[in-house]
Amino acid sequence: MPTVEGDRCPLRFIGPFEILERIGEVAYRLALPPQVSEVHDVFHICMLRKYEPDPSHVLDWTELEVDEDASYEERPVIVLDTRDQVLSVKLLGIGILRSSKTLCFRAVLARVALIALERWPSICKTTREQIILLRLKQHWYNPPSISHWTPPKFPDSNSSTHCNWPEITCTNDSVTGLSLPNKTIAVTIPQFICDLKNLTVIDFQYNYIPGPFPTVLYNCSKLKHLDLSLNFFIGRIPGDVDRLSTRLRVLNLNGNNFTGDIPLAIGRFHELRVLRLFQNELNGSFPPEIGNLSNLEMLELSDNAFLLMAIPSSFTQLRKLKQLWIKDSSLIGEIPVTIGNLTELEELDLSNNKLTGTIPSALKMQIIDLSQNNLNETIPADFGKLTMLSVLALFENQLSGEIPETISRLPSLRDVKLFNNNLSGTLPPDFGRYSKLRGFRNTLEPFHWQVARALVC
Question: Start and end of every Disease resistance R13L4/SHOC-2-like LRR domain (predicted)?
Fold first, then answer.
């Protein structure tokens, strides 16, 4: 392992150290003593030399001393190079720096690296984070989609600075976001990802990441946005999932193969705005504690094989909720009357379940889909007050009575589906006159004729 001596930086080596394992094609993990524990234990082969029992060219690390000022006064201003043969302070225990006075290359070992980290944290932080990203790339077997993740080739070039990589978001020169959707990643998420200490956004949607829920992300203490949708995760959502960051605002796990219950711990993310768990294999129950998520704006549980259960009344406490989707999820019982208390609710989709009873009044909705249930009685006249309503789907229920005339005058209405009910009477003549109606489906022939006439006129 190399060290320095004098102003001309001749390379000398300390050791010997035992090789523990081979890492990839060109690196080895060494058994380093505690005195140099701050040096990463993986070294590129070009930084190693085969041990020959000749003390004339071996410098014992126990006798290595570096002054407090690291024996030179120049202040480093930029990482000069991080080529493959010199990966950085973090990976190899060395860094190549350019001083403010000269361009002399200096190999900084152990103590010097610690001094640099203490005195110039912004430089070392940038180098450290880039190395973590390059390790991620290597861990994922160098997918072609991020082949541009490479160290800069020239000292003063910013073209390859990791903060300029399109998948990386930086704030104050520190990595805060990883956005890697559809990058053909097919390997697990490594624990060292949370060495990016300021990470707030992880978006790994639409990949092939396998295995159970990645509990390694519990160590990302500043995480606010986690999107693992459309991958190959399996098993249960952990009962201690609330060990994720308490700052979490978005949790998207849709399109995976999670099974079992939604754990009670989900209800402890008090900052959560978005919870998307649809299109999984969840076959247990979902907890009423979801109603404790007072800041929740989007709740999507659709397309799961839940046990037969009613909509918890606690869900109507979600006063900031804008979107509620629980279609095709084995719901039974009645829709809570208090759902009308959700004054911010814009989209309601409870279709293809086994709901019974009457349709409650709504206040602000733009999309209502209650189709393919067993709802009865009449269409609420209050629906005629929903001036923002664009989609009304009530087909395949047991609804009776007439269609309220006020619905036909709604200015935003685009699509109406009422077929396969027990509706009677005539179609209100104003359908298609007050809005650009694109579709109207009902099984009664007079209804079809009058809609066509209204659209033509």
Answer: 248-352
Q: How far are the Cα atoms of 182, 191, 310 from residue 170, in angstroms, in the given order?
A: 21, 21, 45
Other Cβ atoms less than 10 A from the Cβ of 209: the count is 20
Euclidean distance between CA atoms 338 and 282, whole angstroms: 27
Reported pTM: 0.72
SS3 content of the chain, % helix, strand, coil (to 5): 25, 20, 55
The answer to whether residue 447 scores a pLDDT higher than 70 is no
Structure tokens at 367: 């999309």
Single-letter code of the amino acid located at 334 = E
The pLDDT score that the predictor gives to residue 160 is 62
Of how many residues is the chain composed? 457
Residues pairing with 415 in the sheet: 391, 439
User: Helix 111-119 to helix 121-139 angle, to the nearest 10 degrees?
Assistant: 110
Please give the Cα distance from 184 to 119 (Å, whole number): 40
Q: CA-CA distance, 372 to 327, in Å (whole number)?
A: 10
Residue 291 identity (one-letter amino acid): G
The two three-digit tokens of residue 125, written as one number: 């932080």
Question: What pLDDT is recorded for position 442?
Answer: 67
Residue 66, classified by CB atoms within 10 Å of its CB into exposed (0-12), middle (13-18) or buried (19+), is middle
Distance between CA atoms of 453 and 457, rounded to whole angstroms? 6
CA-based diameter of the chain, in Å? 105
- Round to the nearest angstrom and report the end-to-end CA distance of the chain: 86
Q: Summarize the confidence of residues 167-186 as an average pLDDT.
A: 96
CA distances from 446 to 5, 134, 427, 449 (A): 97, 67, 7, 5
Name the token pair of 135: 């390790």
Query: In the chain, what are the domains?
Result: 2-138 (no CATH), 167-283 (3.80.10.10), 308-457 (3.80.10.10)
DSSP class of 153: S
DSSP 8-state class, residue 348: E
Q: Check residue 20 and give its pLDDT.
A: 83
